[in-house]
Each structure stands twice: as structure tokens, then as C-alpha cells.
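Exercise 7 asks you to align residues with C-alpha cells for two separate proteins.
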Amino acid sequence: MTGDRGSMTIWMLGLSVLVLVFGGLAIDFWRALALQRELSAVADSAAIAAASGIDEVRYRESGEVMLDPGRARALGVASIAEQELDPLSYEVATDGAGLSVSVVVVDTVELGLLGLLVDQTEPLIVRAEATASPRLLP
């Protein structure tokens, strides 16, 4: 019986360290998911704003709803600039036919405990993409 003295303390200490490690990893994972969700919201709002950049002259002349690439890009970039997030990079582009616009937003995640376990020469990159097209409502 005297040889078992203190073994419960060692088990509890080991378990506590394990819980702290998994907790730190979970916080880093949660931070990456939260950033991805925020980037998705920014990309969605920028795509919707850019899709409102229709070519008004063409619409008045022919009734066709087509995007003006310059105007759509300017509206998408302005929407991203108005957000509280300052992404690492972003791209707003229309397709060749002027029927849709796509927005890609990229940012990096600052790692905490996970940074001690993985090589941090390349950062953890999070990317979100959204596509929208203009529509006429009846």
C-alpha cells in the first residue's frame, strides 16, 4: 500500500495537462472556423453588392440584364472596404458574359497552442468564395 501513495496525483496532473492541450487545440480550431464564417459573410455581401452593378444603358436599350464589369468590381471592392475585417487579399471578377460576379476573400489565422505543434513557416490560410448574378424581380 505504501508504494501507491501519490499515484492519483500523477494521474490527475497528467489528465489536467491533456485537457489543457486539447482545449488549446479546440480554441485554435474554433478561431479558424469563426474567421471562415466571417469571411463568408464578407464575400456574400460583396457578391450581392457587385451583382447590383448592372449596365443601365444596355438594360434601357434592350431590356437585357447584364453586368457592367467596372461598376460591379467597384461596388464589390467598396463593400469589402466597408466591412470591419481587413482581409489578406480579395478578388472581385465578373464572368466573360457579364451574367455573374464572383468574390474570393482570403485571410490568415493566428495560431496559439497549435502553433507550437506545427511548422509555422506557412500560415494557416482561410478562404471564402461567393457568386451572385443580377436578377429582375417581378
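Second protein for Exercise 7:
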Amino acid sequence: MLLGQGGASSESAIYDVTDPVHPRLLCRIQNTTASLSSAINYEYLFPRSAIETDLVVRWYADANETPAGKVFGWVTSGTWLPGGSLGAFTVPVDSSDQYPAGGQQVWTYERGTSKLLFTYGNGIGDCVCRFGLPGPLLPGEFWPNS
């Protein structure tokens, strides 16, 4: 099996590459993260509401699905161990005084419990200028004994 994602696209695809010269498309996955569980199924994140996302197991043969766990928030980007016992995911943060360009919260998930690791701000864009910021310092200028 091969799980691939197109560059800037939010679409992934799973292929059976038993015959690498003639790969067979098994499914396409859009707007979420997926992970290969085994040769017969895969797992993906399915946001249910602003406060809850399901980790779902889906079988290739008959498209049956089974819940494997839940994570906090509307999550479409993450990684986890098969079965959803341990994982990490990000949740977007809206713009605020502290994060003018928005930000990301990084969470861990273990045995049904989510925990916030840290939050960081997004960059403010593609500005290469440094308005009002001090110039770069050499190590000796900032740390006199280095």
C-alpha cells in the first residue's frame, strides 16, 4: 500500500502497489489526514463539530467504518499510532492581540485524553523588511564571554 499526498493539495490517495508498474487506486481522501493501518484498512480524522473529531477506521473491501477514538476540537491535520492510542495534532487559533496572524495549538492525544503541548503564532506574511526591529547580533555582541 502507498499513501500519497499531492504538494499543496489537501487530497491524499491510497494505492495498491503490489504491481508497481500498474498501481491500483483504492481511494481518495480529501480535506483531512489519513494513516495506513494495515493491508485491509486505513484510519482518518473526521471532524464532527467545533469541539470533537473522530478517528475512524475504514475497510477497503466494503467501505465499512468503525470509530477508533476521539480528539478535542475540529482537527484535520495530525498523526497517530494505529488504533488511535497515541497521537499529535494541530488546531488553528483565530487572530487575536497575541496572535495577529492567527496561530496553531499543538496537542497530544493518549488513551482518550487530549493535552495542550504549546501554541505558536503564524508568521505575518512575506515581508522581508525589519521595521523597528534591532539589527542582527553576533554572538560576542550579545554574550560578551562567548
